[in-house]
Design brief:
8-stranded mixed sheet; single chain; 2,3-Dihydroxybiphenyl 1,2-Dioxygenase, domain 1; alpha+beta; two-stranded antiparallel ribbon; disordered C terminus
């Protein structure tokens, strides 16, 4: 398998985090948008992203993923996971994190979410999902990515929805 490890962090401040990780990685981010930044590095081979979250939703690790080279590879992962009895969720031709992607999601036994995806191109738009419940939400003026619908109550540690 060719690809890169993908790590996505919830952060208090993208600006402060970009300064820190630029020094840590010895590189500048490849994409910076309001409330979002990405380091797409060859060494270490990682696609490292971060997004601002309100304090109520700051969980540290948002999700992990594997970036592959083609939609066919995404679907091969899906077939292998499904054959093992693991449930996957498809997001084909979706816009997420200012990028168009084909992806699947799977959750490990502890509840950590993993995505397997192919990057198809940049986008000026972002669709955001709450990492705790998956509700689609629009970024707030501060770039917060955990603005679930008003009908969903927020509880300590995340979204209180039953999705």
């Amino acid at each position: 398998m060719n690809g890169k490890l993908h790590v996505s962090l919830d952060v208090n401040s993208v600006g402060d985090s970009v300064k820190f990780y630029s020094v840590l990685f010895g590189a500048q981010p490849t994409k910076v948008k309001p409330g979002y930044a990405k380091f797409d590095l060859e060494s270490p081979a990682v696609n490292f992203t971060m997004q601002e979250s309100r304090h109520c939703c700051l969980q540290g690790l948002s999700h992990m993923g594997l970036r592959v080279d083609s939609t066919e590879q995404v679907l091969a992962f899906k077939d292998r996971l499904n054959a093992a009895g693991l449930k996957t969720e498809d997001e084909i031709n979706t816009t997420c994190c200012y990028a168009v992607q084909d992806k699947i999601w799977v959750t490990d036994p502890t509840g950590y979410r993993w995505e397997v995806y192919v990057f198809k191109g940049d986008s000026e738009n972002e669709t955001v999902q709450c990492p705790q419940c998956g509700h689609e939400a629009q970024p707030t003026a501060t770039g917060s990515t955990c603005s679930v619908p008003e009908s969903v109550s927020m509880v300590a540690g995340g979204c209180g929805c039953a999705k």
